[in-house]
Design brief:
The chain has about 500 residues and is an alpha/beta fold. Helices cover about 35% and strands about 15% of the residues.
């Protein structure tokens, strides 16, 4: 007898429908075909034990299981449940008339208990798109899948629950997701707030500009000056994610298997802070079966690289193209997947090996040329993609001991949101540009025209401060954001002057 069940394979951050055909006929051998990996092949032993322990029988006949389409690699243990149901239906132990209505996924324990899977959200999305009535997943994954509207989502604890449901004996627990309600819940709640930061008003201003224009930023300062503390508060001033951004971000975390069980929808922008010992594949994604890296997990959020010169140079170099394209493509012999990677880079570093170059009170003990060599660990092309270079100095005692509270993140965030709204209107005809940091040369010429006074100011700064040529476009982009924050239609000389001071590492005198 032939029975069909339907599962799903994750391809990048999207899913594909997999048809699992189970045929039980004359003979005594077992065949599992359709490009399964070792985890799928091992399902035979798990299913054999699980069926025996719940009072069902594994067919003692010739069993052929085909997983179609056969040219797509099937990975992981989540196919246990649909294969087991196919075997029971093909051997007439359960009814088969409802199997075609559902996409079913779940890993089986030896006692028949269902274990959580990865990628429940994209599985539910593809099931809705393909016209299925619903999805059946382990109960831990059901709230995540229920984010998708207009499709029934059922959560099960045990194999027998699913069997009884298909036999119309007992209903399964049905989940419904109020995604708009979840999206609005705690959208303005953050663990860190800029009001907790004493002093550093000039640094807060620079980070506000970075958030308003989507600019990459690097913080340079001695140990203990507050670089990490400031960076952790950047998500609190970024604009709220749209519902589409929240769903896309959740999909990435879902297929990576790191979505918290208590969170069915990610509503705050991610903040990822990988250690400097991370590998190339860990940062941009990869592996035998490509998985998202940190730059994709930071999609729509912040990627914070602390102690930037301590990262391996090869790791930083593979990040350059995704920073420009906002997508990373990982190719292998049999598969090529693309993961979104639109993130705001925030980096931090000491100014020299000892950490006290340019310190107001402590002397630098590094040898001549050590500062330059330390800075040269980071390539020019990577610096070229960082718009703001911000020097962070230690906070004076009078500021640390003062009781005056700083400006809250909520107040700063409102200014950032207004500036982003201006940019949204400006780039509404362009699908590839969303903020000032992404402007092309053509858009710079169109939206960032400088008057004669501003042109002369920029020329003088380039000459006197020995700024590199690559600083030119960055300064103009940042000045455009400063003008947007000031609600100014044109870039004024004082906007340009403020932008120029954020290019300290481009000065040829730095480190001399």
């Amino acid at each position: 007898m032939l029975a069909k069940t339907y599962g799903s394979a994750i391809y990048g951050i999207d899913a594909l429908i997999i048809t699992i055909e189970v045929n039980v006929g004359k003979g005594s051998k077992f065949f599992l075909v359709g490009l399964p990996d070792n985890a799928v092949k091992e399902s035979h032993e798990r299913i054999l034990a699980a069926l025996g322990n719940v009072g069902k029988k594994f067919p003692k006949r010739r069993v052929v299981i085909n997983m179609a389409p056969a040219d797509i690699k099937k990975e992981g243990s989540a196919y246990d449940l649909p294969i087991a149901l196919g075997l029971l239906a093909a051997s007439s132990q359960i009814k088969s008339e409802h199997l075609h209505e559902y996409v079913v996924m779940g890993e089986l324990s030896l006692d028949g208990t269902l274990k959580p899977i990865k990628g429940a959200l994209p599985i539910a999305l593809i099931a809705k798109q393909q016209g299925f009535s619903g999805v059946i997943v382990p109960v831990e994954n059901a709230p995540e899948a229920a984010i998708v509207d207009e499709i029934d989502v059922y959560g099960a604890h045990h194999l027998l629950e699913v069997c009884d449901f298909l036999d119309d004996l007992k209903p399964l627990q049905k989940f419904s997701g109020n995604r708009e309600g979840l999206f609005l819940k705690d959208i303005n709640h953050f663990d860190f707030d800029f009001s907790e930061v004493k002093g550093q008003e000039n640094i807060k201003r620079a980070l506000e500009i970075a958030a308003a224009g989507g600019h990459n930023v690097i913080l340079i300062g001695p140990p203990g000056s507050g670089k990490t503390m400031l960076a952790k508060r950047i998500p609190s001033i970024l604009p709220p994610m749209s519902l589409e951004e929240a769903i896309e971000t959740t999909k990435i975390h879902s297929v990576s298997g790191i979505l918290k069980s208590s969170s069915s929808l990610i509503i705050t922008r991610p903040f990822r802070s990988p250690h400097h010992t991370i590998s190339d594949a860990g940062l941009v994604g990869g592996g035998p079966y490509p998985q998202p890296g940190e730059i994709s997990l930071a999609h729509n959020g912040v990627l914070f690289l602390d102690e930037l010169p301590e990262f391996k140079r090869t790791v930083l170099e593979v990040m350059r193209q995704p920073m420009e394209d906002r997508i990373v493509t990982i190719s292998r012999a049999r598969i090529s997947v693309a993961y979104p990677a639109s993130f705001m880079l925030v980096a931090a570093m000491n100014p020299c090996p000892c950490g006290y170059y340019n310190h107001p009170t402590r002397a630098c003990v590094c040898s001549p040329g050590a500062v330059k060599r330390y800075l040269n660990r980071i390539s020019g092309p990577l610096f070229d993609r960082i718009d703001l270079h911000v020097e962070v100095i230690p906070v004076p005692f009078k500021d640390l001991s003062g009781e005056r509270a700083g400006e809250t993140s909520a107040v700063i965030r409102q200014r950032v949101i207004k500036a982003r709204e201006v940019q949204t209107e400006r780039f509404k005809e362009n699908d590839t540009t969303h903020n000032n940091a992404q402007m092309s040369r053509k858009e710079l010429n169109l939206y960032c025209k400088l008057d004669k006074e501003s042109q002369q100011l920029l020329k003088t700064a380039m000459e006197r401060l020995s700024l590199s040529a690559r600083a030119y476009d960055r300064i103009i982009k940042v000045s455009r954001t400063i003008a947007d924050l000031a609600n100014s239609q044109d870039i004024q000389p004082h906007h340009l002057a403020e932008a120029i001071q954020y290019r300290s590492l481009d000065r040829e005198s730095w480190g001399d």
